[in-house]
Write a structure and sequence with these properties.
alpha/beta; Alpha-D-Glucose-1,6-Bisphosphate, Chain A, domain 3; three-stranded mixed sheet; 8 strands; elongated
């Protein structure tokens, strides 16, 4: 059976670096917060290929949401942060910078939480006397219905944002979509 290559985010296929020569635009992702625009411009100049515009994106964290999807203030109590993502460091830095106390339990990227994992998380939550268990939105969705109702839970949505010239980016995307559907 032939493996079907589907690009991210639907699949797991990443475009090789050489593919940038075919691109209409380039997007450099995961730019750290508060990176000076001068540094971004310098990198854009190094990366542009035949006038291909370069955009930069970063991560913006949303409000803490409870299991019903309602914005919830985590208060001053300790949180138990549970992650199954490749790079939890930006999230940990975000929480530290916000003055939020937390204990971190890390699992591998794309981890499917077993009943045994849930029992370990619950035991850690109780032992640390945490106010909430905090998941990434991605991990929260993977819990399904197996999470105990009596454990207060929060998740933190993330959103990618274009850091400079977001309007120009949006106009280019709209133009591309219009051309695509017109043909």
């Amino acid at each position: 059976m032939q493996h079907r290559r589907i690009l991210l985010p639907a699949g797991d296929w990443r475009e090789p670096d050489s593919g940038r020569f075919r691109s209409d635009i380039q997007i450099i992702t995961k730019v750290p917060p508060h990176t000076p625009f001068g540094i971004l411009e310098e990198h854009a100049g190094e990366l542009e290929i035949d006038e291909t515009p370069v955009f930069f994106s970063g991560i913006r964290y949303g409000s803490f949401l409870n299991s019903a999807g309602i914005a919830t203030d985590p208060g001053r109590g300790r949180l138990l942060l549970v992650t199954g993502i490749a790079q939890p460091e930006p999230l940990k830095k975000y929480l530290k910078d916000a003055g939020i106390l937390f204990t971190h339990m890390s699992y591998p990227d794309h981890h499917l939480f077993s009943d045994a994992d849930i029992r370990k998380i619950e035991a850690k939550f109780r032992a640390e006397k945490c106010a909430y268990v905090l998941f990434t939105e991605k991990d929260f969705v993977r819990l399904g219905n197996s999470w105990p109702d009596d454990i207060p839970t929060l998740y933190l949505p993330v959103q990618a944002e274009i850091l400079k010239d977001a309007r120009g980016f949006d106009l280019r995307m709209l133009s591309f979509v219009q051309r695509f559907f017109a043909s």
